[in-house]
Amino acid sequence: MIHARHGTDGTEERTHGRHGRRRRLSVTVVSALLAFALGALTLPSLLSDDAEAAGTQPSASATAKDSFKHPGVLVSDAQLDFVRRKVKAGAEPWKSAYNAMVKSKYASLSWTPKPRATVECGPGSNPNHGCSDEREDALAAYTHALLWNLTKDRRHATEAIKIMDAWSAVLKEHTNHNAPLQTGWSGASFARAGELMKHTYTGWSSARQSRFATMLRTVHLPMVIKGRPNANGNWELIMMDAATGISVFLDDRASFDKAVAIWRKRVPAYIYLKSDGSLPKSPAGSSKDTRKELIDYWQGQSTFVDGLAQETCRDFGHTGWGFAAAAHVAETARIQGLDLYSEAEGRMTKALEFHAAYELGATVPPWLCKGSVNRGIGSVLEVAYNHYADRKGISLPKTKQLIQTKQRPSGASYFLAWETLTHAGNPK
Question: Could you tell me the pTM of the whole model?
Fold first, then answer.
């Protein structure tokens, strides 16, 4: 596997004597100031979260490695090596998952990106001015980045870069009601694609890499890093999925710490445990704190049991998005040396089993969602299941049955792509 880091443009600088050294120092200082102004350099994180300030939780900086590991957004070198070996051996489920990816529209070598300056996404993506186009293009870029890494066919590298270059040349903003969620969906996939291509391929010019980084830094990151405490929980978790991935790509420790801090507050407010008390936790920064407000926020559900989620009584589809995004953040953090999985273990494992049971057809009791649930959680559980069941050996029989009988191989949609391929049984 080829590893490459791209820094300067390779231009040779010549200096002569004392005046030359002074000139070089001046250029260096100016460059550093410009980099700071553009956000390429970051100051250490100043944690404003009360729990962090009080020392009740370790900060990301205190527990993760000082520098980021690359590639390190959702998938690592070791994980991709594992997948490559399994596919080459024709082992299942990786062979079927790989074939599904290769046959998908996202793997087309004649993919035509459709960038635009302003992506406008209203409620439910209505109006849809570039929303689907950006999401689809980001998924295609990530698909080609995976295929490049698994096959070393440079045509896929070229396609991935073509798509990212097209968007970085044009995109200026996301607008309207769904802008934060849209930015999360597309930003999560773009960060994964960019991370793989930046660190495994030498053919992406430093100038185009910088332009792509500027897009993520100035268009995507400011929208997602603020969080969305009063929205349904899948929004904020998807936004943190994008924020952590973008932060790793940009080597932005302060933004990574901030995203992790939001995740640490949102997951306990999204999945209930009886140890929380008679009511679920209120999202940090939310105005929803009375009993009535919290019950309304939990879709009218007034009986709370281990593993119930804030959107369970809305539908399993959005709930599954929340679980997947939470696991994505934990997986990226794990690669970076930070164990968020353990912090969420009780909530996540109980939530997986609780929802898998009803997705498999268990009778819904009268106290749950007025006796009826909207099933259809989707193929969203591979990353979390792989960590808790395969790596840690926790028994999750209903989740296992659901994944193995109804969800494999997972495909690509919104901010999810090929997770049976990348994470099924992956010990790395």
Answer: 0.85
